[in-house]
Amino acid sequence: MTSGPVKRALPQVRRREVDGSGQDWVRFEELRPGLHLPVVARPTLPDVDLAAWGRAQRARVDEHLHRHGAVLFRGFDVVTPEAMDRAIQALADAALPYEERSSPRSQVSGNIYTSTDHPPAERIYLHNEQSYNQSFPLRLFFACVTPAPEGGETPLADSRRVFQRLPAELRARFLEQGYMYVRNFGHRLGLSWQTAFQTEDRAEVEAYCRRNGIDFEWREGNRLRTRQVRRAAGLHPVTREPVWFNHATFFHVSTLPSKVGAVLLAELGEEELPNNTYYGDGSPIEPATLETLRAAYEAEQVAFPWERGDLLVVDNMLAAHARSPFSGPRKVLAGMARPIAWSDVTEPAG
């Protein structure tokens, strides 16, 4: 009687520190044919520890981020704030606190937050995180704990391609003037100034505004109006490519659903809107210009369904992100890292 070939058991691979030979433990590939954003990173062995691998391969991950704009780590089971924080520290150093807030979020653990607490039925338009701040994160992290049964994607758009789609004359005016972001706090619409600035102390708000180039005006009824002029574009600090990087479209009243915008304008008037934007000199942005801006974003938008355990890493200057409406339960955690100041970003030529 002859026996068949002996089957050898595969060695067990435990979660362990990478010893320098882990380059082939993760492969990078297109999410689907022809889609460059995001690139997907999958483990080639069972139980690869993303944080341990990421510490040794950070430069490689950065190369893919600079080429594609975002990396989707799939198959690493990042479903806890602790696992997410470890991945952030490995790939981009410590997670940042959420300052000068504009979106409702809940703190989950340390500097890990819910991605947003906006109502599920509302779409959140494409934007680059905190581009209205003097200092903003270069890295964004989103971890999917519970994917929505329907909708709830986090669409992306390549900020380099958005810049190139815009007419030269449109870019030129924004490059020359920047844009003005005006906020009104105290109408019970949007965030309160106490939430936005994370303090009950007016003096702390005033000090923050002075440090960050924000004009402020206290108004009757403990209300606050702020104005800040920010740049609309810059060169990425590593790739040196021009990127469209601002909230001029996102915060403009015309980007809201038409019925919502009409109600706000009728009830409050333009000067009292919770958020609105203008050219840097305070003049209105033309409707046709805003339609052109939105068309450029929409043309570059890509989306993919979340899977439990996904970790999406985004270069905040190279890719804008959004949120699709959804139904059912959804839990996506968010973190930010690698702060950079606008003063360290070079102006593009045009």
Automatic annotation (TrEMBL):
A GO molecular function held by the record: 2-oxoglutarate-dependent dioxygenase activity
Keyword flag Oxidoreductase: yes
Residues covered by the TauD/TfdA-like domain: 42-334
Pfam families: TauD
GO biological process: antibiotic biosynthetic process
Cofactor requirements of the protein: Fe(2+)
Protein origin, superkingdom: Bacteria
Alphabetized UniProt keyword annotations: Antibiotic biosynthesis, Dioxygenase, Oxidoreductase
Keyword Oxidoreductase: yes
PANTHER family, sorted: GAMMA-BUTYROBETAINE HYDROXYLASE-RELATED (PTHR10696), TAUD_TFDA-LIKE DOMAIN-CONTAINING PROTEIN (PTHR10696:SF56)
The protein's name: TauD/TfdA family dioxygenase
